[in-house]
Amino acid sequence: MASHQGRVFKRCGCRDENSGRALGVRCPKLRRQGGAFNPRHGDWGYQLELPRTTEGKRRQARRTGLETQEQAWEALDHLKALLDLAEGEGEMEVQIADLIQDALRARRSLPPVEEVRKRVGTGVDVRSEPPTTAVWLTEWLAGKPDLAQGTRASYAGHIRKYLIPHLGKIRLDRLKSSQVEAMFDSVETTNEHIMECKESEDPKVRASVRGQRVVSLSTKHRTRATLRSALSEAVRSPEVAVSVNVASHARLPSCPRKRPLVWTPGRVAQWDKDGTIPGEVMVWTPEQTRTFLEHARKYVWLHPLFHLIALKGLRRGEAVGLPWANTRLTDAEADIRTQVVQLSWETFTSTPKSEAGQRTITLDADTVKVLRGWKKFQNQARLQAGAEWADSGLVFTRQDGSGWRPSHVSDWFARIARAAGLPSITLHGLRHGAASMALAAGTDVKVVSAELGHSTTHFTQDTYQSVFPDVAKAAAEATAALLRGAVAPAGSGGLVPVR
After folding, report:
1. How far is Cα 468 from Cα 183, in angstroms, rounded to an integer?
2. What SS3 state is found at 314?
3. Is 424 left (phi over 0), alpha (psi -120 to 50) or beta?
4. CB neighbours of 72 closer than 8 A, spacing ≥ 6?
5. DSSP 327
6. 3-state SS class at 412
């Protein structure tokens, strides 16, 4: 290891009365009569010979204006420790010397030894300034051209709304898991403020948070996942000295999967009384779904779409984007290969986000009958419209042949449900209900999982399986019969397992 020559000195700004030259270190006032340094006069500095430049020029690291001798020695030792990191390797010595020289010229603090050691170990040029978190996130997203539009919009939202405002100014290699946790704490503080204002009796206070939404725990988890993905690439990058993915170590409360609850008579009665909705995901009973579909028959242009979702559990975008070209009524099948995604007001057509989502569903006889009648009606409407018909090729269209906007379908669903006097569920709740009815009817979970487009049967059971009241009662009676020593009643099988 090379020996780096340096010294610590004390100097002042006094000048010789005759020549006017600066006395510097020769000023007699710098020391007391006993030879000790005078703490009330002058300031301390250091000087260190640096490795030559790439052009072979000599250079020094020099700084004055320090208050104590200890500060000067600490700074000098810091410089030597930085140079020692090169371990005598000429090119690395030059890089570290350049780093020191640039910091002193710009009057910046010298980087910590551990930080430079990390950068030396990763093989990056120690002179390059690591990017801020904002710069890295922006470049990371721009460098992923193959992302689905919906996924890109989701990542961009997390970066714009949360990650950059809270973490953007922090240098990427200095980002800590505690800072990520502090971001979520700040978001939760804002949540509490919004809730307090919305519950205020003062109209002005409520108006101050109009349009602001509480950030859910699931959104926090998705935001952390976005940061984790970006940092994973930073860890792999040879140009960024990041060795730990701090997002993986940032703690968040667990976010259990939202399991659906059925609108039982008791829950409906409470809802009628005070509007209480007992869960985030609610499902109708088969009887309630039947009531909805009967009421939806009045809306000719929408009933077949809702019927298909209620029976086969298609996602909203899959149903809206289903073309006739992929629908074979003779074979009672439909290929799910496209979906319509809506971001804000913009819509676009894409493929399902997973390989399992690209599937073929089997249509029951009732659904085939509904779709045949709908196709006949649609053809008659097309003939009447003539040249004004928009030939979208879609199964479900508006009166002019154009496709539905997904948000409009959801709005109409809520409107029809209210008109039918049914308790509140989302359009996606029909998908939950379709899965639950299929499982309650004794359909093998593998078949249900494939029809829904899930990659695993566990996800299907854990998320979409609900226990309808009559099925649950049958299970209870069958269990009680066993305890009494009686024979379980016929037809008590096919119970939906509770997970």
Report:
1. 41
2. coil
3. beta
4. 8, 9, 44, 45, 46, 66
5. E
6. helix
Nearest to 144 by CA among 132, 130, 133, 154: 154
Contacts of 239 (CB under 8 A, 6+ apart): 124, 128
pLDDT digits (tens, 9 = 90+) for 269-280: 999 999 899 988
| 75 pLDDT more than 70 | yes
Q: Where are the domains of the chain?
A: 6-122, 133-249, 261-466
Q: Is the pLDDT of residue 256 over 90?
A: no
CATH placement of domain 133-249: 1.10.150
- Tell me what the mean pLDDT of segment 257-268 comes to: 88
Do 127 and 95 contact (CB within 8 A), yes or no?
yes
* Cα of 413 vs its chain's centroid, Å: 28
The answer to whether the predicted template modeling score (pTM) of the entire model surpasses 0.70 is: no
- Distance of alpha carbon 69 from alpha carbon 37, whole angstroms: 10
- HEC letters along 262-312: ECCHHHHHHHHHHCCCCCCCEECCHHHHHHHHHHHCCCCCCHHHHHHHHHH
**Residue among 68, 124, 342, 137 nearest 243 (CA):** 124
What H or E segment, with its residue span, contains residue 407? helix 406-419
What is Dmax (Cα atoms) for the chain? 122
CATH dotted code for 261-466: 1.10.443.10
3-state secondary structure of 34: coil
Mean pLDDT of the residues in the chain:
88
List, for residues 379-426, the tens digit of each pLDDT value: 999 999 999 999 999 999 999 999 999 999 999 999 999 999 999 999
* Confidence band for 466, pLDDT divided at 50, 70 and 90: low
